[in-house]
Amino acid sequence: MTRNLAAIIACRNNGSRLFGKPLQNLSISKKWNILDQIILNIRNLGVIDEIVLAIASGDSNKSFIEYARKNKLKYIIGDEIDVLKRLIDGLNFIGATDLFRITSESPFLYFEPITKAWEKHINFNYDATFQDNIIDGCGFEIITKEALNISWKKGKVKHRSELCSLFIRENPNIFKVLKLNCPKELIRKDLRLTVDYPEDLIVCRAVFNKVLNGEIKSDYSIYDIVKFIDKNQQLKDLISPYCDDGYSTMYL
Question: What tens digit of pLDDT does each residue of 94-112 get?
Fold first, then answer.
């Protein structure tokens, strides 16, 4: 069987912290938003066969349908709470065997290990490959559709949620899992590069303007981003209050 890797991106606007996170602008002047940056990142990876937006139902999420049509992306609509089912439906919609998962509010992906991770994933028949213990927002997961189906069928309500890989993580005895090592320079629990709060957005905008020089591109370095934030204590102070809670629940 030919294996194919698809990025299914779960999208919704409602949130208790910041509304419409994926569509918040990284650059107001260029009208370039977080989801734009994510899509560009994925398209330049070279190993992703397809991108699908898995959009939550409801009128508040219609902007994602408009976004998908404007950007010629495929999409499906599903239950707002059951994110796991939305991801599975996205894979079924295009006939993909494996999921490439990142969140829809994290614009700065750690690219370097992805191609080799996919090769290991298929060559050694892993059910799941995780890039854990990295700066919040920079990691990724690769999971077979079969493992996701088992998670949905055998899991509980908490597993059929945005905690899409929780059942796999809780049951290592029934899944073959690869956890990738992370460079020590990127194990930084005092930093985060995901947008949950307005302060996160300020930091990510600063990164776009200074590290990416305000240019629409995906050839950036997470190491350069870390150096930039380390040199700007005011940015670290903005996100500091949210780091402990974010990391304590990241894989739960």
Answer: 999 999 999 999 999 999 9
